Amino acid sequence: MRIRTSYVLLLAACGLSAFAVSSRGAWADDLLGGGFPGGGFCPLLPGSVVVSTSTYVGNQGAVASLTAGVTQLPDTDKATTTAVASNNYVTVWNNASVDGSFGVTSPIQLTNIDLLSGRPLCTVNVPANQVVTSFSSKSELGLHFARDWRGPHIIFVAYAGAGVGALDVSNADAVPGQDPTNPVTFAFGPNYAFHRTIISYDDDGTFRYTPTIDYGGNNGRSALLSPDGLYYAVGNANNGNADTFGPSNGTNPDVTETTGLEVVNPINGPSSSVPIPANNSAEVDPLLQFTFVVGKPDKPGKDNNYRGVTEFNGALYFTKGSGSNGIDTVYTVDTLPTLASAAATTITVVPGFPTDSAKATGGNYTPFAVFFANAATMYVTDEGSGNATDTSTHAGLEKWSLVNGTWQLDYVLTKGLIGIVDSNLNGYDGPYPPVTTVGLRNLTGVVSGNFVTLWATTSTSSASGDNGADPNKVVEITDILGATTLSGPVADEAFRTIAGPTYGTVYRGVAFVK
Predict the structure, then answer these.
(1) Is 435 helix (H, G, I), strand (E, B) or coil?
(2) Which helix or strand (DSSP H or E) is residue 396 part of?
(3) Are strands 196-202 and 144-148 parallel, antiparallel or unpaired?
(4) Of 97, 276, 366, 391, which is most buried, counting CB atoms within 10 Å of its CB?
């Protein structure tokens, strides 16, 4: 097969021996069963892929006592609502029907996968007493690999100080008392706030933490360490009624200025509770969110609701693919901004990508992550959870080529991916409904000659109360780099499963270790 042949060539290019590649996909039974080194030191081995995962825990923190018909959850900034489900993994997400902020914090694991066998080399448990993620928040835990004078690193974003089992943290404030109009603040009090924190996992097993004041009222999604030594983060903000620019909207720090693309000066402290210096981060192109399009004004802080981010040839590329505000497309900043230059730096749509309003089109394009194979070849994942146009024309793995300064869509890879149904997902809380793969989220890859192999996490649809809680998968595909049409050998390219689906576990980020 073309995929297997190119896969062996890829491994050889990475300095790895080419012997039989296992077809076994799911390794999460190893992950959960402890049949390999886990929980401690896990080196970043070149030629491997690191995956971020999280597993639902229903017997710790506030979720342990969550009771249908009794527990009060956030509703508005003046009222709470009553939970409609208890802490059962299968049904707990139905609380999203009454609480738009609903989520449950959970621990984070980083697993290094051996690409030869498809099995985990090792896993490290991220200290849950320092940071956690929000289970069902599908856009969190994007991973990026970086190498600097200290060595190799894996970079990601999580919540500081919440612990496992806390409720609605992803929509809580970032700083105590930040937004009195936030429903989570009303329900749980002004001190219910958690710094969105950039974490570096180093090759020596050390975790380093850079807490920020950013993304209050929503989630930090992804961050990378740039060659200039700064962090660049993307995320969303504003869960309340802040509707003006500046301190007059009653939020402090201003939730409309601590969102989107943020430049962050690394603190890299030994814990997530290290102090945050004044002016340690800055929003790039802050006025972009006030360039309203079509109909009534968008909600400030939402136009720049970014998620995937990458750096290539000294420029940043990032996506907006959710919400009815602004433009869902791929954006760029052509030079790396500093803290001082962030406000004056302009964000633009990448030439050739959609420029129509998400409000007008109903979200007919839902891009998630970007990978550059070279200066003229870009791969973009599409979540596929938008409207019918998105599902039929974009969902899956898009390949774009640069032609005379404008990017054009060559084809979309979907074979072995879109429409695949996983059932018989049974576990400790009973059967989970069947899960259908509808697209892709985070992405990484590596080029070897005229082949590029890519790994991504899947997006799903199910009868669950929140599809972000669905057991999803890590998949792999190898594409012919020089191809521009979905014909010949390219038509036979298909995705194969590397991990999952696994009951109670979600796969979020992927990063190739160079």
Answers:
(1) strand
(2) strand 396-403
(3) unpaired
(4) 366
Whole-model pTM: value is 0.92
Catalogue the E-assigned strands of 120-259: 120-125, 131-135, 144-148, 151-160, 196-202, 207-211, 220-225, 231-235
pLDDT bracket for residue 248 (50, 70, 90)? low
Cα–Cα dist 347/17, whole Å:
44
Residue pair 107/57 in contact (Cβ under 8 Å)? The answer is yes
Alpha-carbon span 124 to 170, nearest angstrom: 23
**Is-contact 283 258, C-beta < 8 A?**
yes
What would the pLDDT profile of 369-381 be if each residue is shown by its tens digit?
Answer: 999 999 999 999 9
How many degrees, rounded to 5, is the angle at CA 330 between CA 328 and CA 333? Answer: 125
Backbone angles phi, psi at 288, to 5 degrees: -60, -35
**Number of helices (H), then strands (E), in the chain:** 5, 31
User: What is the C-alpha separation between 195 and 180, in angstroms, rounded?
Assistant: 17
| String of DSSP letters for 80-106 | EEE-SS-S-TTTGGGGGGT-TT--EEE
Contacts for 506 with CB less than 8 Å, ≥ 6 apart:
53, 54, 135, 136, 138, 468, 469, 470, 471, 472
Q: What is the DSSP string of 104-157?
A: EEE-EEEEEEPTTTSSEEEEEE--TTTEEEEET-TT----EEEEETTEEEEEEE
